[in-house]
Amino acid sequence: MKKKKIYDGKIIGLSVYDLTIRGRKIKREIIEHRGAAAILAIDKNQKVILVKQHRFPIGYVLEIPAGTLEKGERAKSCAIREFQEETGYKAKKMTHFLAYYPSVGYNTEMIHCFLATDLEKASDLQLDTDEIMSVIKIDLKKLLRMIKAGKIKDSKTICAVLTYAAKNKLY
């Protein structure tokens, strides 16, 4: 296998791989990403904490809080850090319940989803200079209806909410 690094940015890298599989020569362009942690935070009233975030080039997107792992950072540490930075909340309980590849075939990113419960407001938002977002709470059942109606387009939100709902027999 031969690898040629094309780009090495802050969040992603791009490499071209020349490899042989079953005797066939194959070329693959792969986006390399450290991975991310996403947080499905549900309060005692069954409200989900979401962020309305500007995602260029799409525009504003309603999604669960999430962020990229720092070099060497564990997924749970990232989830705890990102949840407080993006929402101002802390969770007394943070449980891993799902990991998936959002774009298998050309991207190495794996998203680790955590369930955050026993929530308390701890601080103001601590956003990076390029983050534009606000916090919104939505009833879990309303969020499920929004997903079913196609109003939520973010894959991590859809995967986390539907997996949680299926495990808890909510639909």
Task: Write a brief caption for the model.
With 171 residues, the protein is of the alpha+beta class. 20% of the residues lie in helices and 47% in strands. The strands form two sheets. Strands 4, 5, 6, 7, 8, 9 and 10 form a seven-stranded mixed β-sheet that branches. The protein has a three-stranded antiparallel β-sheet with strand order 1-2-3, with no helix packed on it.
List the topology elements.
Blueprint: E1 2-8, E2 12-21, E3 24-33, E4 36-42, E5 47-55, E6 59-63, E7 66-68, H1 75-87, E8 89-100, E9 111-121, E10 133-139, H2 140-148, H3 155-167
Parallel strand pairs: 4-9
Antiparallel strand pairs: 1-2, 2-3, 4-5, 4-7, 5-6, 5-10, 8-9
Helix pairs in contact: 2-3
Outline the structure in words:
- With 171 residues, this protein is α+β, with helices and mostly antiparallel strands.
- It has 2 domains: 1-33, no CATH class; 35-99 and 112-167, Alpha-Beta Complex (Nucleoside Triphosphate Pyrophosphohydrolase).
- The chain is 20% helix and 47% strand.
- It is built from 3 helices and 10 strands.
- The strands form 2 sheets. Strands 4, 5, 6, 7, 8, 9 and 10 form a 7-stranded mixed β-sheet that branches. It has a 3-stranded antiparallel β-sheet with strand order 1-2-3, with no helix packed on it.
- It is globular and about 55 Å long.
- It starts with a strand and ends with a helix.
- The model has no long low-confidence stretch (mean pLDDT 96).
